[in-house]
Amino acid sequence: MAKVEIVAERCKSCGYCIKFCPKQVLATGSKVNSKGYEYVVPVNPDACIGCAVCARMCPDGAIDVYK
Amino acid sequence: MEKIYTRTKTIQEDKVSGFCPGCMHSTVIKLIGEALEEMNLVEKAACVLGIGCCGLHMDYIAYDNTTAPHGRACAVATGMKRSNPDTLVFTYQGDGDFASIGLGESISAANRGENITVIFINNGIYGMTGGQMAPTTLIGMKASTAPKGRIAGEHGYPMHMCEILNQLTAPAYLVRTSCNTPANVNKTKAAIKKAFQNQLDGKGFSMVEIVTSCPTNWGLDPLASLDFIEQKMLPEFPLGVIRDR
């Protein structure tokens, strides 16, 4: 069991996490945060293996990973 | 389930950085923070920030820092380290700060073998001031002061700071890394930790040059800027350890 949580207010929607996730867990969402960025959401959360590659690539530390 | 990754505590909890989407300044300051935490050095650390986008970190990091006059970070760090030898002193400078206006201070500090660590961010352009040409701008790369692209006969060639400092006798550790892939992010963090350890061991001047992106001034979206690093920046600035002793 593993999961990712996105801190929506820190996300700037650069897409690095989406590009490097090996399991295509993440995608850009349709809602925007207070800065106007369409923050990333886990669209395929059950596929998460907790490798934390997304969180390491995230410049803004917007991703928490649980395993 | 246990939390296995969260943002380092060395970045203020309530702050969101002012950097553009995809900017790797945020990645690098995160890696520095993780290295400090893992090496238990947060209380001992003193960061000297350069001028430019790197100066934005002053509102954002949660350990001691100061901002040097433009380009003089290595000189300020020299004074701090000599007067407080037990403090872990490192500079955080961009290419405009380290390789252009501060070139004299940078090379002099390296030549003296000052026991400091330099984190040098090379994104090939001036970020904060509006995309002007930097010493590290690639041939043909457009900048606001080189609208037709950098021309060698007019503007000279990109400067390779690791290789230039490698001509000196004193530096202990010179390495060039990037943050464009997960593997390179991990290597960058390892290089930062090694550079800090060198200072603790009294080995002298260490520099980690990190090839990063500036999506805004490159005129690319963040993902395209990753490709630009891979295809254009890295052939000009090859990664690897240039010196380790």
Please characterize this protein's 3D structure.
By secondary structure, chain A is α+β, with helices and mostly antiparallel strands. Chain A has a single domain, classed as Alpha-Beta Plaits (2-Layer Sandwich), CATH 3.30.70. Chain A is built from two helices and four strands; from the N terminus they run βαββαβ. Chain A has a two-stranded antiparallel sheet. A two-stranded antiparallel sheet of chain A has the order 2-3. In chain A, a hairpin with a 5-residue loop joins strand 2 and strand 3 (38-42). The longest helix of chain A is centred in the first third of the chain and has 5 residues, at 16-20. The radius of gyration of chain A is 11 Å and the shape is globular. The mean pLDDT of chain A is 96. Chain B has one domain (24-244): 3-Layer(aba) Sandwich (Rossmann fold). In chain B, 52% of the residues are buried. By secondary structure, chain B is α/β, with parallel strands linked by helices. A seven-stranded mixed β-sheet of chain B has the order 3-2-4-5-7-6-8, sandwiched between helices. Chain B has helices at 24-38, 73-83, 95-101, 103-112, 152-155, 161-165, 182-200, 215-218, 222-236, and strands spanning 3-5, 45-49, 64-67, 88-94, 117-122, 173-178, 206-211, 240-244. Chain B is globular and about 50 Å long. Chain B has nine helices and eight strands. In chain B, 37% of the residues lie in helices and 17% in strands. In chain B, helix 1 (24-38) crosses helix 7 (182-200) and helix 3 crosses helix 4. In chain B, helix 7 (182-200) links the parallel strand 6 (173-178) and strand 7. The A-B interface holds A 1-3, 7, 9-10, 12-16, 19-20, 35, 37, 50, 52-53, 55-67 and B 1-8, 11, 16-17, 19-27, 30, 181-182, 185-186, 215, 221-223, 226.
